[in-house]
Amino acid sequence: MWKPPERIKHAPPPGGWPTVEEADRALWFRPIQLGSTRLAQRTWVPAMVPWRATEEGFVTSEVLAWYGRFARGKPGAIVVEATGIREVPSGPLLRIGHDRFVAGLRDLVETVRRASDGQTRLFIQLIDFLNIRRRPSPEKFFGRYLQLTDRYRQAVSEGRGGELCDSDVRQALLEMSAEDHEKILTPRDLEALRYGYREWVTDVEKEHIRRLPQQLPELFASAAVRARQAGFDGVELHYAHAYTMASFLSALNTRQDGYGGSRENRVRLPVEVLARVREKVGDDFTVGCRYLSEECIAGGSTVEDAAYFGVELATAGMDFLSLSRGGKFEDAKQPRVGWTAYPYTGPSGYECMPVVRSDVQGPFGRNVEPTARIHQAVRAAGLATPIVVIGGICSFTQAEEILRSGKADIVGAARQSLADPDWFLKARLGQGEAVRRCLFTNYCEGLDQMHKKVTCQLWDRLELDEAEIKLSADGRRRLIAPSWTPSKESGCTSDHLESPSPLK
Ligand SMILES: Cc1cc2nc3c(=O)[nH]c(=O)nc-3n(C[C@H](O)[C@H](O)[C@H](O)COP(=O)(O)O)c2cc1C
Ligand code: SF4
Fold first, then answer.
1. Between 20 and 30 A from 84 (CA), which of 54, 150, 232, 294?
2. What residue ranges of the chain have pLDDT lower than 70?
3. pTM of the predicted protein model
4. Which residues contact 469 (CB under 8 A, 6 or more apart)?
């Protein structure tokens, strides 16, 4: 992963853990309404892909254990990982593009209900992504993949006196220097050679890309109907990072069919998707989205664009807006031959999941001020849509300060929740000193990048001999965090949450 050259090591923000009485008064532990769904608290675990589904995208016992473990920390909401809405294979990522996936997803909902004693509301993130291929070897690329055009034939034939057959042209291109490739290949072919071929939403010469605005609303809507059938409280439409819907919102989207160019046109499809989803699931099912406060790439959408999108999406009836940042393909690191590009490896990836060795600003709460700007724009438009902020948040102090200053309405954490799935509960019960604090080194993210089962370095080697605990295939890592039982000494255990209380 790219890291800022300054490499300044930042200390974690003070925990500021509350006593039970302070937690009783804390905004973070107060309820909030998201459309038809009431969260018991404003705590949130955002989507995190754990690589535990079957190759066909079905829920497994490991998926159940993963979400059940987060649910034991009783956050206000958990968003299930990016789940594919189409009938296309995507490795061990969850899928929801057909009715056959509903039964497994129903088990998942029931697991979370049980493990959280009904305290945690469950959403599922719905994703569409375009084709991306592995980086080819130059031999494969020039021998098989490159479409030979007259431009290439001429470029090679010139200087060699006379026409060459296609296989000689391919061989000549293969033998050229990197500088010559830069001069001769089109930018797209150069990208395909160096990073692997990737479809863009602007490839409108391809029918399936041209027709995305006609196809996606129905695909998202059918997936949302299945989510409802499975018992989820709602869906989060994935309009963030490097995927199809984010690419429509992107300032780099130059489509000329009314779905690209101006901000008005770029937000058209995201609004049309919402409209179709809403038509099919009704008003009593929560529908929100995750999108970017900033793309953090050259020429990408800015926070001003995001403020505009926020107002449009809220006006169109989103029940919540969850803000992330960066995470794009455009500045991703070159993958090794045989690997696919990964959108969290460049500077925009750093903005999405910043690490502890950082620039002057540091990794903590980097997304808070841009989110505050969007929050302000949405409120100025007279809209009350709840706004979720995520990114480098790992303490009670940070969360409470964000809520008190009105910069967001819900505060979530991905890596801190992975480091300690009980951290919300510990803080709520006045036992915050027991929180296992995330180191922000991105060991977990490295596993994700290698498509390995995600775990945390702080607990994956602990108590490996625990009865019935599942280990990784090499037997070296446990797959879920060790259990935690609230201490009785504080006089406040999780039973406290189940008695009639202001949390309900
Ligand atoms: C292992 C891992 C998997 C992730 N998977 C997703 C995902 O499926 N969808 C998504 O929108 N974000 C995903 N993210 C990004 C997180 O939701 C979050 O935005 C990011 O980690 C920054 O928040 P944090 O600082 O609280 O970790 C993932 C992050 C990690 C570490
Ligand atoms: S592996 Fe590192 S960055 Fe990831 S959750 Fe654990 S401590 Fe945090």
1. 294
2. 489-504
3. 0.96
4. 463, 478, 479, 480
